[in-house]
Amino acid sequence: MLIPTEKECFEILKKSGSESLKDHSMRVMKIAVAVAKKLINKGIEVDIPLVTAAALLHDVKKLDANICHAKEGGEFLRKNGMSKVASIVEKHALCNLNDSRFVPLTIEEKIVLYADLRANPGKVVSLEARFEYIKETYPTADEELKKLYNFAKDIEIELIGEDTELGIELEIQDTKKGE
What we know:
Elements: H1 6-15, H2 22-41, H3 48-57, H4 69-79, H5 83-89, H6 107-118, E1 119-120, E2 123-124, H7 127-137, H8 142-160, H9 168-171
Antiparallel strand pairs: 1-2
Helix pairs in contact: 1-3, 2-3, 2-6, 3-5, 3-6, 4-5, 6-8, 7-8
């Protein structure tokens, strides 16, 4: 299994004990695919099946990680024959950016990182709103958060320019009613 289908991704989430993250993963996937389609429409080559699988599996080890869920998720996927997906998953977490091996470089890696940053419970949010939430959660990491925000903003501009709406809010529907 090089790149799993959506159905296979859901089975992997279930088997790994991360099924409770399905709604978040679906939201990240829908944002990632919307961004990928915008890029394709601009003539940029993007591997949508790879983006889809990586977005769905990006938090596969979040609930049982010892140190860094992104690195551990990448290791888990690589051990299960999904090295291309693993490479993206291990590069989606901001905590890894101080290690050059885990900085997103490919368009697919950047898309999944960006989509995860835009996905909050029940809605799609701006980077500004997401980083306000992160800052409230980790108030002592202010300087580091400024660097991370600037990095994420550079990716946003590279991927979608100044038009951060993308119509994503209209394209994303929650998978559960009432959420």
